[in-house]
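seq:
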Amino acid sequence: MLPMLHHPQKFFPSALAIPTYNQIGTHVGASLATPASQNGRRKRRPYMPIRMQAGITLLITALAISAAAPAALATPASASATPAASPAADAPAHAGRYDSYSGLLMAGYQGWFNTPDDGAGRGWKHYNNKNGFRPGSAVIDFWPDVSEYAKTYPTEFHFADGSPARVFSSYDQSTVDTHFRWMKEYGIDGVFMQRFVSSIKNKDAKRHGDTVLDHAMKAALNYDRAICVMYDLGGMTHGDAPLILADIEALAAAHHFKPGADRNANPSYLWHNGKPLVALWGVGFGSRRDYNLDDVDHLIDALRRAGYSLMLGVPAYWRTLARDAVHDARLHALIKKADIIMPWFVGRYNDATYLKTFPQLIAGDLAWCKANNITYVPLCFPGFSWKNLKSGENTTQTPRDKGRFFWKQLATCAGSGATSIYVAMFDEMNEGTAIFKCAVEVPVGAPGSTFVPMEPGVPSDRYLRLAGEAAKMLRKEIPLAPPESPPE
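struct:
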């Protein structure tokens, strides 16, 4: 999400006057066995006479040659004009597994990091501040643990022992594959791929986003994870609805999730209420924007006519039209057109204030949504930090407290009666909400590039484990646990 859209001090700074804090579960999914293996052993194949085997082999070879010849002679079409081939042929996912968000714990996925040598031609993106990505100039607060990445890139930063610090690029397929493998290993059901309206207006940014989405669609099928497109309306202006509608139409055709499509064509794509799901984030916030409720209403109506189900990302106080929400009752009319709503809670509370008010707020939201036949998805986040992004040591921080803050939310939401959870975010290092593996040891800091290490004694996968444990509670695989007692 764009930082400017949810500044934690904008609406109630006194409630979040948290002093600057130097912030400082495992569910391993079954490995994907080949058809010829089971429980680690090779299956014994039934006996077949040698001559019969040879005959069948010749027949298969002839058929393969005849099928391949026309393709070899065909004139190549441009990649943008030709939809991607259906990826489901050898996919472990199956139709029906992701026909509903209910029962799933999913996270937001930015996928927006670039390096100068990753082939995208964009230089540093979402690592760099005004003076590039070097000591004194950075926009990430957390540093990635890159020990499992196939490809990493050098930076101008160094660790205390003088060794160079490296980072990943989201543009690499191996990076996205690693992230989806972690989702599988730790039991996180999938992700919402963030697609910024401002980015689809920019040729280079759109090419990057398309590439990362291609990688993610393949990885989702490979690791049997759910995936869904989420438009962040940041950067949207009056009259941009046709741009978004054309974009989703092209994506749905390329990735085989058009309304009415065969579910086997892309079984990993998330559906809800019998239709492919599309999410719109940034609906009804009270902060200044270049679009209004009428623009969103038009977009919602058009997407519904096209055959999609809808999830709306709304303010925390959407129901009372207070604080971060627009003071306009039409917001409720828009929400009633949706299938799912997800309120944005990042920065709205901290470890000390969460249990005082938000369980009650969630209960009221759930009751309203149940009365209006809408699925309600509460949000959980591990902590918050944007010192480098905002170039200031005195910006608001939300301490992680070694996972206790995150678990407090996860356990509360799992026991609230909600059937789904949204985690913000999987890979958001800029605002310090990333749950993926972050570094225990970080590069040497300087004003403008002071990095937050994982707290002493906390392993880099701590937040993936906690999210996975919460997913088990949501699926009723394990009993509900108290919010005050996170698993070790």
